[in-house]
Amino acid sequence: MLGERKKLENYFQDSETTDIAEMHEKFWKNVELKPSVVNKKALLARANFMQEELDEFRMAVENGDFLEQIDALIDITVVAKGTAVMMGLRWKRHWDEVYRANMEKEPGKNKKRPGMAFDLIKPAGWYGPDHRLVLEDYWRPG
Length: 142
Prior knowledge:
By secondary structure, the chain is mainly α. It is 63% helix and 4% strand. It has six helices and two strands; from the N terminus they run H-H-H-H-H-E-E-H. The longest helix has 23 residues, at 40-62. It is globular, with a radius of gyration of 18 Å. It starts with a helix and ends with a helix.
């Protein structure tokens, strides 16, 4: 098992995603070590799973249950990272690209989110995350 963990660590390159990959390998054997297209039925099931966890978070918020809010947030992350593991994505690299793009935004009001007192807006010249470039950095189809 230790050798398998090392292989997963080498590919995913962050401990949380490695934990999730180890769990997926143990229970479902659905870990990809290269970017892979997952079938639509499986991805829709994962989307429904994420929605279920989001609904649990909303319910915990409505009920004022702080401990359940914590649990639901972790569960949302587990399901999202598990889906990335199924797709063979190196989460941290894509995270870094989204983080880069978000850090280039500016504080302001977003018309699409009128209930939020504070949001981030895209300044002139801003460009979004380039996941194709990130993929090309660690995967060359062959």
